[in-house]
Amino acid sequence: MGRASYVGERALGEPDPGALGIALLFWAFAAATEPADAPAAPLPR
Predict the structure, then answer these.
(1) Which of 1, 11, 31, 42 is close enough to 5 for a disulfide, judged by CB 3.0 to 4.6 Å?
(2) Given this model, what pLDDT does residue 12 score?
(3) Whole-angstrom distance between the N-terminal and C-terminal Cα of the chain?
(4) Which of 41, 20, 45 is nearest to 31 (CA)?
(5) So what's the pLDDT on residue 19?
(6) Cα 16 from Cα 3, distance rounded (Å)
């Protein structure tokens, strides 16, 4: 039972903070190892 168990429908349309953090971590690693091939940063809408 994660954040959704107590936030409920208020979280609809918002990115999951934990998933966004992991995505940014992997993006930073990819950008550091292959800067020319790295996609744009996965920032929230």
Answers:
(1) 1
(2) 78
(3) 25
(4) 41
(5) 82
(6) 9
